[in-house]
Amino acid sequence: MLPRYSREFLLSGFDSKPTVTRRNFLVGIVVFALVVSGAYAWRQLGRPGLIAIPPTELAPPLYTEYHEAELHLPQHDWSKTRPGDGQRFFFVAGHVRGLGWGNALQEHLMNAYLAYRAGRIFVFDNYTWNDDGSLCSKYNGHWIPSQIPYSALIRGPIVGEPFPDNVHASPAVSRVYFDQVCPKKLKLARNAVHADLVSKFSAELVTDAWVTTIREIEDPCVEESRKSGPIYVHYETWGVRLALKDIWSSFSTSPIITHFGWSSLVERAFDHNSGLIIPKTLSMPTLADHPFTSNAERYSPIPGLLAIHVRRGDYEQHCPRLAQNSDGFVGVTNFQDMPDQFVVLPKQGGETTIDHFEHYRRRCYPTVGEIVEKVAEIRTSPAGTGINQLYIMTNGRPVFVQELKEALLAAGEWNMISSSRDLVLDWDQKFVSQAVDMLIAQRAQVFIGNGFSTLTSTAVMMRLANSFPTNSNRFW
Asked: Which branch of life, at top level (predicted)?
């Protein structure tokens, strides 16, 4: 029988913009908590007793309709209590939790690619900030969903849509369905699989080790143990120079990437704000008007648009930590053919000096003046020919964004300068706005990113995979 995020207990008003009509919120949340504790569909949320209840007017969406749609994927046969003939699953239970969207997406893509290489059906979970049983969590003083279904953020075979016709592979299934047909699982420990690795700093060697191990297993229900943590960890993969280089060719041309897409929720936000993104001189169809084909075809370049990623907020503390750890750029941003290479300077006597901190600060937390200077440099470069519209991806405070806009306008003429703060988003879209920013960065004629950011590196990953010129990716 199909487990339900039943329409009988959808929270009245909880998945829409908060209004004064939410008088039944507390009653609804209690009912929901009771159903959660017994509903199979929410078993993945952990201990059901821990239900965070934010004030009504601050309650974030739960994306219930997306959870329901995942449960109704055609490959989910709820009459079964074990895998069908030929069905072989793989789930990474130790996937990242409590990290930003860029971290989660890059890992999700790589885990799906591993399953694809191993000939297994990929099992997807939620984008998880917190799986302690809470519905909402507090971050930086604001309530956010503890978990968001991946289908509210992305689309493609890795969230259950079909592979292209020429690919002989089965689309992903939800963790809820995996638990239904695989009550008993064969669990693999990361340390055991990695025991004989020649180098743990090669994504290709790590993937090969897992593929070899999994292919030797007959059990249809294979799970990487949650206790093992992520398969691809930052200080062995994403944060290691060239760790992705040996796998890049096969990974970037696999259907995991070529048929990756953004969710309808994200695309609607892009379409609705196209006036802030697409130069008025261009006539480009809305994404909603066209059926999905491929990543490269759907997300073509937007001529004239420069997108820049300006991190503030937590990066005021994060950038000095990077200096203390002597960290480099992350993911594909540290490929040797990328412009604006970052060189990790050796420390004198192991000390992190003022010069060392400043070396990182310029590349990680540039001042308004440094941002203006870099933008001017790009506009005079061959890659920047014709740029007349600027979009600022930022978590900076409004007063900072206004200061930056005024400085950029004073330094040169623009048809328009807009920012993340200017986007008009509905309540559901506000909590996936990082994905909207990433889509804009993916399509810009030129993108200036923060090489230490996984959001930047994942956007650049898509640009490279879609054959954008390498020199169209720049960094502070």
From this structure: Eukaryota
